[in-house]
Every structure is written in C-alpha cells, then in structure tokens.
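Sample 1 of the test manifest.
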Amino acid sequence: MAIGAIKLRKAYKNHWVFLVLAGALLASSCTSGKLRHEGDDPKDSAQTRRAATLTIKGSDTMVILAQNWAQAFMDANPGKVIQVSGGGSGTGVAALINGTADLANASRPIKDKERKQLAKRRNVEAQEFRVALDSLAVYVPTANKIEALTIPQLKKIFRGQTTNWKDVGGEDKPIVLYSRENNSGTYAYFKEHVLDNEDFAATAQTLPGTAAVINAVSKDPGGIGYGGIAYAEGVRTVKVAPADRKPVEPTMENATSGKYPLSRFLNIYSAGEATGIAKDYLDFVLSDDGQQIVEGVGYYPLPKEATAAAE
Amino acid sequence: MTLRPRRAKSKLASSFRTPLWHRVAERTIALLALAAVLAIALIFVFIAREAVPMLWEAEFAEEVQIRDLFFAKEWRGYDEPVFVWQPVGEPAKFNVMPLFIGSLKVTLLAMLMSIPLGVGCAMFIALYAPRAVREVVKPAIELLASIPSVVLGFFALMVLASWAQATFGFHFRLNAVVAAIGLALTIVPVIFTISEDAIQSVPSTLTEAALALGARKYQVALRVVLPAAIPGIAAGVVLGFGRAIGETMIVLMASGNAAIMELFDFTTSVRTVTATIAAELGEVAQGDPHWRVLFLLGVMLFAVTFVLNILGDLFIQRLQKKLTAS
C-alpha cells in the first residue's frame, strides 16, 4: 500500500492518467449496460428463437447419427435449428434432468434413479423412444487373428483375470484393455451384460468416446476394446458367443433377429410428452427417411415390428 | 522523497492536499487486491460447501462409508483388500488413493524432466548463448507456453504415445511417462522464464569478482551464479509444480485414465485427480454421493497446492535471507 501511494504521488501531475482510467470505467459500464439492454429488449424474438431451437445432448455412440438426423431435418425444415452434442448417455440424461437439454440420446435404458430424479426435479415422466438398433462390437487390431470370444471369456478379460491372449486361443501377448468413461451408456451396457455388474479391471484404460477407443486399439497390438458397430474402422470385430452357443457375427440380420448377444436399442428420451419441434424431430427420426440415415451411418434400422410397437 | 528540501516539500504537500480521485483510486486498487484474496477464500468455501455434507447426510451414509474413501477394503468379487475407484456400480467404490497417487506420479515425473531442462536452458541462454542464438531460442521456448494444452494433449496422444511404445516397449500405450512428457512441455517454459530472469539479475559484481579471482567460466556459472539465483529458480519450480498438478487436459488425453494403485511402476496408465473431476462431474446429479466425493477431491487438491505453495514460499524467503545476510 505504502509503495503504491508513493508511486501515485510521484505521478500526481499526470491527471490524465486518472481521467483515462475513469473514462475507461465509464465506457465499459456504459457498453455493458447497453449490451444487457440489447439482450433483454426483443423478448418476442428470443421466445420464437427458443421455440425453433432444439437442444439434444447425450450418447457419444449416437452423436454422429444424431448430427446426420439433425442436418437432414434442418434441410427439410428451414428456420428450425437443432444443436447436437455428445458427452455420454449419463451426461445427456443429467442434462434432461437439469433442464439444459430438450432431448437426451442414450445408448442404454434410463435408470430408475434417473426417472425418479426427473420426476422430482421437473415433475414429468421420462418418455422413451427406441430409434435405432446397434450391435455392441468387440474390437481387436487387424493383426490379431482371434476369431471368436465367448461372453464368459470376455468377462474374464475385462475383469482382469485373463491377461494373456494365449489363454483364449491367441498369440502369446499381454492383453491391453480399453474401456470408456463411466458416464458412457456403452460402458454401462457392457458392465451389465458382459461383466454381470462387476467392476472393470483397474488396468482398463478409459478413453473419451468410441472413436478414441477404436483409434487406441488399432495402434496397440495387444489391445481390445468395445463400442458401437458404426465406428469399426481400422480394427477387426470379433464374433461373440453366448455362454454355450455358436459364435455370432455382429451383422444386421443377427442384431435384428436377436441372435447377437450384445445388440441393443439406441434411445431418445424426452421429459414428458414431446411437443413442437421435438415431436417433429422424433417423427422424422422414426420415419423411413430417418431410418435410412441410420443405415447410412452404420447402425441398423429398427425392425418393422419394433417401429410398430413404438407407435 | 525524504531528501527533498523542506520548503519544496511543504509547497508540494499544500498543492496536493485533497485531490479526491487519488484517494478513490487508492481505495479502488486496494479493493481490487483484496478481491483476489477474497475470491480464493470464497472458491474454497463454495467447493467445501458441496463436499462437507457427506459427514452427516443420510443419502451419502447409505451408499458410502467415509473410511472406504481412504482405506483398502475387500469388496465382493475381489480376493483381497483393494483400493478401487469405480464410481458407477453396485456398490459404488470411491477410493481416492489411486487418484492422488496418479496425480503425484505424473507431476513428479514431469518435474524430474522439466527442472534440469528448464534450468539448463536458462543457464545456457543467460550465460553462454551468443546473441543471435538467444534471440531465436528464448522466444521459441516462451512460445511453447502459449500452446493450448489440448493441442499438446492431442500431440501426446497421437504421436508421442506411439513413439514411446515403439521405443521403450511399454505395456500401456498411454501411461504416466507419456503424460509427463506432455506436461513437461508446458512446465519447461514456466521454469525457464523465471530461472532466466533470476540468473540475469545476479549482480555482475559477483561474476566479475569471481572471474578476477581466476575462476573459469563454468566455475562461475555453477558455483557463483547458480547458487545466487537459487531463490528465483525455486520460485519457478514451485510455480511449475502448481501448474503440473493442476493441469487437466493433457493428462486427461494422454495418461490412459486407468485408476491403478501402483506406487513405483511409472509405465502404468494413471488416472489423475483433475482428469477424474473433469471427466465425471458433467454426468453426476447434484447432491449425489458421487458429486460430493468429486468436490472432496477438489478440496483436497486445493489444499495440497495451497500448502505446497506456502511451503515453497517460506523456503524461498529463508534462502533469500540467508543469501543477503552473507
């Protein structure tokens, strides 16, 4: 303080310093006031803007699919805006609960706990829309020649009990596990259906997004990972066998018929009845055009009977 | 000012009695300075406020026992007591030890790499480099500080990790070493800049005296300049440490994020405190036990950096006193 005061006194002749400072303060307060005013003023336009904007958040598995849907929807309906972002199924549902998203993409069913939170926070029921079918594929690098793995083998591998490829019929090479962050729906699905809700091995590296997992697996000779079928590039998918049956390839037929043990529905959730633009968007997603996009991205369209059931 | 003739001073004082804006400006500046302190205190209070209810909340007690946050436990499905961070699952397991060990491992490794590099560079630039070299190298290193950490993280993830695995044959492609190299890239400029300043400001009388006594150039550098600049270098190291332990993006991308309880093997993948908070906070509902634990992590991280900064400061002050006294 004392030093500051002395320095100030030394500069006492330079009144202009203070004038400039005061001027800057005044100017900044004026502009900020003006900005606030501008933001407040056209209330009607802000409201119409909100009505024409849809915010969708959630599953990273579905983010490319949702972007394609949104793009096609916006092309067909000029003036309507859809914002799509990822972050994970858990993130999407949390955003739905907190009211920061209109729709949530989820690659897993909503949890009871989340339903309750939504009911408590926003006083509405979660509505589920099944929008596509996915085979959760198990990936290995292309150089890995392993043909098939059974669910119990997969469980042991991802629990960290099997640590070498030779124990499941492969080369003598340590297994390196790649998993997803725990806000991921894919993570939750895999944990439930493969690990029987036991924990992943602590050595499993958790990566943000399926694309990151694929990328890591493709570069790691001992790697193994899992993720949505649409991302399979630069890696091989392994046939998966339910406990004591024949190995099944993750193809559209096997997913649709339910033969592939790790096929699942991709869902969209809304808080209460979907209305307005959200309803239009969901109608589009479930339409033939929307389902064609599903195929284009690499997932499987809903089987006809499932679409009928949803309607 | 004290040397000013008496008459001139009184004249000055009279013409200067009560310019209001001076006092207003002084107060404003003082307030601004206080605001920084206040902000730190408030941040701590608000983070702690989210974490502390875990001590009495029934919802928390139902799911988590405080003891299990810090000590090993033999969970269902495990053969021995383990430290595990598995926040999603039944039951959720929130043991913070693997995370703190992860943070410390990456930070230590990054410091081990960047202290010799940063200080060495600073000595070279300040004492040895010809002018032309200095004018290229110094801005280049300082430019390194302005690279966004997400870019460095991406570089570590895509390029460094593959290179390191091919060269050293790591089991984990993404591991503490890769993350630490990425981190070192952000810390070296910090340590370099401050060390270089410290070395430059060593009084030339010292070096001249040493040279006059017949010391060689390297003797001057190592035995005269370096010891005299140590307080400044230490300040740079403390700052770099704070930056390293708080850095999020690089470790999130390049460390593999596996919460492994492993003290000595630095080639395993690690999950740091910061990366955990960044990756998980977006997903949890407010007030959830998971939410409380993440804020507890924040409080602990804050406490660690705060204490280390204070200790570093005290150390520097003592050193300075010692040096000026002799």
